[in-house]
Amino acid sequence: MIRCAGRIALDAGNGVSSPKKFGLTSLWPSLSFPVCSRVGRSGLLSIRHPDSSPTPMRGRLGPQGRFARDGARDGRTSFRTREGRKISALGGTGVPTVLETPRILDLVGTAQRAAPGVPLLIRGEPGVGKDILARLIHAATARHPNSFIKVNCGGQPEDRVEADLFGHEMGACPLALRQRLGSFEFAHHGTVYLEEIGALPRTLVPKLLYVLRTGKFSRTGGPEIIWVGGRVIASTVQSGPTGGDDDLWQELHRLNVVELRIAPLRQRRDEIPVFASFFLEQFNRRHRQDVRLCSDAMATFMEHSWPGNIRELEETVHRLVAGGAMSPVP
Q: Own/partner pairs for 110-114, CB < 8 Å, 24+ apart?
């Protein structure tokens, strides 16, 4: 018997039980699985066939083994693979409870009432909490035992984004030295979160729309048709349709995408003291400080327009605690 975190045991003999029976996220037959209990503590379960070599499993499995191993060490529920993809382990959302505000939870309820396979589009200014909403939606649905994978559609070369989304076969391009699985395969029956979908290279739009319409795709350079059951949640900073001749937005409209809008922080001023206190506690603990916000500082926070929203508020509190700012806001 092999035990992981003292919670789950599988028979490591000739008849290895299927990982699906135990709700483990895995790439079968790779025998190394991230494991998480109901309270969110993750670990690594490795099973080696008696006839296999004694080489450590994590050395052969690459990023999947590493992100699970890291979870066993520090209890995180989200990890970044070597290719830069973010993956959530089973259990927990990775979102602090204080950020689950009534307004955000109302949007989660709207997403739950939508048809299970319908794509979601989250609109909001930078730093407003679109990533948080996407993770909460994933955790609130039946997909929560499966992977949540975040892909940044902007700021990367086109071939990198294509590989992140769809994967590629060995030899598909000069740098494709091995087969690579894309996010849609990793997130089968889970969620693919496309951050800033408006920045997606235009040449990849038809391929993405084909996946949304049919639920199938092929890896770059490969003939195999792959069916996927993951849900797509996208986000954008654009407040509404761009108009003009843009295939992406027109097709998303035809697909009846459900739109969710997060209000900027300046329209949610009652939440500022809660967020500020939370960030203050976090940074005080990190820097071993005992900084407190006086009434004048909090009044300044309440009057500020916060163009950078929650992210700007977090950075401002960080500067105060670290001693890098003489006033609450620039």
A: 110/258, 110/260, 111/137, 111/140, 111/141, 111/258, 111/260, 112/137, 112/140, 112/141, 114/258
Residues 142 and 229: their CA atoms lie apart, in Å, by 12
Secondary structure tally for the chain: helices H, strands E: 11, 15
What CA–CA distance (Å, rounded) separates 99 from 224? 42
pLDDT at 59: 36
In this structure, the answer to whether residues 253 and 111 fall within a common structural domain is yes
- In this prediction, residue 139 carries a pLDDT of 93
Total domains present in the chain: 3
C-alpha angle 108-145-184 in degrees, rounded to nearest 5: 85
pLDDT of 269 > 50? The answer is yes
Q: Are residues 107 and 203 in the same domain?
A: yes
Number of other CB atoms surrounding residue 200 within 10 Å: 22
Does residue 53 sit in the same domain as residue 123?
Answer: no
Residues for the chain: how many in total? Answer: 330
Helix axis angle, 295-303 to 309-322, nearest 10°: 150
Q: What angle do CA 34, 234, 70 make, to 5 degrees?
A: 20
Buried b (16+ CB within 10 A) or exposed e, 303-313: ebebebbbebb
What are the residues facing 48 on neighbouring strands? none
CB 93 within 8 A of CB 135: yes
Give the C-alpha separation, 310 to 306, whole Å: 8
Hey, is 168 helix, strand or coil? strand
pLDDT category of residue 309 using cuts at 50, 70 and 90:
very high
